Amino acid sequence: MSSSWFTRKNGDAVEFLRDRFAAEGKLSPRYHALSRPPRVEAEATNRAIALAEIAGAPLYIVHVSCAEALEEVRRGRARKVNVRAETCSHYLHITEEVFDQPGFEGGKYIYTPPPRTAGQPDILWEALSCGDLQVVSSDHGPFMFKGGKDIGKDDFRLIPNGAPGIEERMVLVWQGVVRGLLTPSRFVDLVSTTPAKLFGLYPAKGTIAIGADADIVVWDPAVERRLSVDALHSAVDYTMYEGKQVKGAVHTVLSRGDVIIENGMFRGAPGRGRYIIRQPAGRAAASG
Question: Topology of 4-168 in CATH?
Answer without folding.
Answer: TIM Barrel (3.20.20)
